[in-house]
Design goal:
alpha+beta; 5-stranded antiparallel beta sheet; 3-stranded antiparallel beta sheet; 8 strands; about 30% helix; about 15% strand; globular
């Protein structure tokens, strides 16, 4: 992994860092197969939704996609560049098919809140294929996370850079970074998984502690449970509220 000091500075200055070889080649192949199977399943029941082709809640769509939550390399850098108490806001996919963009091709930010010098959301892209100019590597505007307003389209594309990386790489970016997926001009689909992390006091897109099965929960270590929000559950009774500290649903010290 690159020097941590350099990664922190790059995140502050540009709003994005790329870390190579986070996921090994064999695991990437398994993740890609699981994702394509999930995309095919969804196409049979939800082919007309606005984000068709995007798989939501990937942790319940494949064993390898679930295990990615506990990837040590990913969690170590999340701890260092964001917060050890981060929880998953959303876990979904991003695919670009030949000749097309996708829902993420609009110029946008992933976090509506602007708080100077404070990250509320950190985006993570796990590349399951190489990101290149030709297959729609993500465009981003360096330093745009420091601005409250979004640029117009002409300014964005005149000043944007395009991400390139090898499959298995991790792309991390400030949720306020202005970005847009490109257009895939190759004849092969380009796949990625995306995880949006947020502060532990924020709400998640789905109620993951209830969504995930008991069997899956048993497979998670303490970090995996923390990431899906098991340490910040709301009590539903006074009995739960007054549980001993070591059994509380909302753990103390979450920052």
């Amino acid at each position: 992994m690159q020097n941590l000091h350099h990664l922190k500075k790059e995140m502050v200055d540009t709003g994005v860092v790329v870390i190579d070889d986070i996921v090994d080649t064999d695991t990437v192949s398994i993740l890609r197969a699981e994702l394509e199977a999930a995309i095919e399943e969804d196409s049979l029941v939800r082919d007309s939704v606005f984000d068709a082709g995007m798989v939501h809640n990937c942790m319940v769509r494949g064993e390898a996609m679930c295990s990615l939550i506990q990837n040590k390399k990913i969690n170590d850098v999340i701890d260092a560049l964001f917060t050890p108490y981060a929880i998953i806001y959303a876990y979904q996919s991003s695919s670009l098919y030949p000749g097309r963009g996708n829902y993420g091709s609009r110029i946008h930010v992933d976090c509506p809140r602007f708080i100077p010098n404070y990250i509320t959301n950190l985006g993570a892209i796990i590349a399951l294929d190489d990101f290149t100019h030709d297959n729609g590597g993500t465009y981003y505007l360096p330093g745009s996370h420091k601005s409250e307003s979004l640029p117009d389209q002409s300014f964005f594309y005149e000043n944007a850079k395009q991400l390139s990386c090898n499959k298995g790489a991790l792309i991390l970016f400030n949720g306020r970074l202005v970005h847009a997926a490109g257009v895939n001009r190759t004849d092969t689909a380009r796949h990625a998984l995306t995880i949006n992390y947020c502060r532990p006091y924020m709400r998640q897109r789905f109620d993951f502690p209830r969504l995930i099965s008991t069997e899956q929960l048993r497979q998670f270590n303490d970090i995996g449970k923390r990431r899906i929000g098991m340490d910040v559950r709301m009590p539903i009774s006074l009995d739960e509220f007054y549980l001993p500290a070591d059994k509380r649903l909302y753990k103390p010290g979450q920052e």
